[in-house]
Amino acid sequence: MPRRGNLRPMTDYATAGVDAAGAGRGVGALVGVLRTIDTGREQRSLLGSGHYASVLRLSGTTGLVLSTDGVGTKLIVAEEMGRFDTVGIDCIAMNVNDVVCVGADPIALLDYIAVEEARDEVLVEIGRGLKAGAEDAGVEIPGGELAVVPELIRGHPSPSGIDLVGMCVGLVELDSVISGDRVQPGDAIVGLPSSGVHSNGYTLARRALTELDEAPPELGGATVGETLIEPTVIYVRAVRKLLASGLDVRGLAHITGDGLVNLTRLHADVGYRIDSPLPVSPVFELIAARAGVNAAEMWHVFNMGCGFCCVVAPESADQAVALLAERHPGAAVIGEATDRTGLVELPLVELTGRAGDGFSAA
Questions:
Q1: What distance lies between CA 34 and its chain's CA centroid?
Q2: What pTM value is reported for the model?
Q3: Are 184 and 266 in contact (CB under 8 A)?
Q4: Model confidence over 155-173: pLDDT tens digits?
Q5: Neighbours of 59 (CB within 10 A)
Q6: C-beta separation of 77 from 228 below 8 A
Q7: How confident is the model at residue 16 (pLDDT cuts 50, 70, 90)?
Q8: d(Cα 309, Cα 247) in Å, to the nearest integer?
Q9: Residue-range domains of the chain with CATH
């Protein structure tokens, strides 16, 4: 008998419709062209492509930090549910969580909203989410753009189609930039719990869980729709408090698409062993069961319960956990940096991974 809520067994993200490897090659090709830009003056950029945010040198000792991201196909869940009051939080979170990864203080965000049809009630709901996210992160939204593009966007159902993207600005003192270059083997990795799927992997999640009104026992009384629409956690205030504490913080990583392989985006010649991962959220176990997706693909596509990592000196680990847990209960040391450069090890599920390759059996 077919599993309820599953169209057909799947084995990877590509089968669901997203060729992550192809996207990576495409980004590489695009960046290859952009690197040849000649402005006719000295470059201001301090970090190469691939980190979480860009840092530009301003005058004096201050750096301007920039990042942009969107909500992705989580918006299709919002369209199908007719509920748009939380996706603005996701838009804020996906941007500010990246900006804080270089040690910056996010200060403002501009939003771009593309719609199939401009409807007051939908835009008000999106605005409420943006407001809630902005206040949580401590950022202003001084402006943005609304585009009505029915020829580009068709909703689920029409005319509910939307796209939502943000661009965040932050400030950082140049001598306080955290690139990860100080991470050393033996440093502790502190994981912060996610609220669920966050805003990555929804093409696969939606294929696995098609009945939004279903309330599987695995979800503890919540419906599939309620679980999938749960907004992305904003980690900025806790991380900023950690940075202000005087503890030795050496690397910060937002765990999004590519899962814990995101740790390799830090500028460090180390590897990472996650031997005590945070509890896996029930929604991920349900997706795996319904879609027939193996562990390697799940750990590559999803955050699997850990939405952010702070790499700290070993002697700072206990204090860092206590401080972070004040705002994010469940924060814990999940592993340590190793001397196996570029390798992410997950001993409990017998997987190893590298950037560009995902995870495979150890």
A1: 24
A2: 0.91
A3: no
A4: 999 999 999 999 999 999 9
A5: 5
A6: yes
A7: low
A8: 15
A9: 50-176 (3.30.1330.10), 188-361 (3.90.650.10)
Residues with Cβ < 8 Å from 1, sequence gap 6 or more?
A: none
Q: What is the 3-state secondary structure (H, E, C) of the chain?
A: CCCCCCCCCCCCHHHHCCCHHHHHHHHHHHHHHHCCCCCCCCCCECCCCCCCCEEEECCCCEEEEEEEEECCCHHHHHHHHCCCCCHHHHHHHHHHHHHHHHCCEEEEEEEEEEECCCCHHHHHHHHHHHHHHHHHHCCEEEEEEEEECCCCCCCCCCCCCEEEEEEEEEEEEHHHCCCCCCCCCCCEEEEEECCCCCCCCHHHHHHHCCCCCCCCHHHCCCCHHHHHHCCCCCCHHHHHHHHHCCCCEEEEEECCCCHHHHHHHCCCCCEEECCCCCCCCHHHHHHHHHHCCCHHHHHHHCCCCEEEEEEECHHHHHHHHHHHHCCCCCCEEEEEEECCCCCEEEHHHCEEEECCCEEEEC
Pull the structure tokens for residue 350: 């017998």
Quick one: pLDDT at residue 255? 98
Confidence of residue 6 (pLDDT cuts 50, 70, 90): very low
3-state secondary structure 188-237: EEEEEECCCCCCCCHHHHHHHCCCCCCCCHHHCCCCHHHHHHCCCCCCHH
**Spatial contact of 259 and 304, defined as CB atoms under 8 Å apart:** yes
Name the token pair of 224: 């599939």
Which of 9-13, 121-125, 356-360 is the most confident on average? 121-125
Q: Are 302 and 313 in contact (CB under 8 A)?
A: no
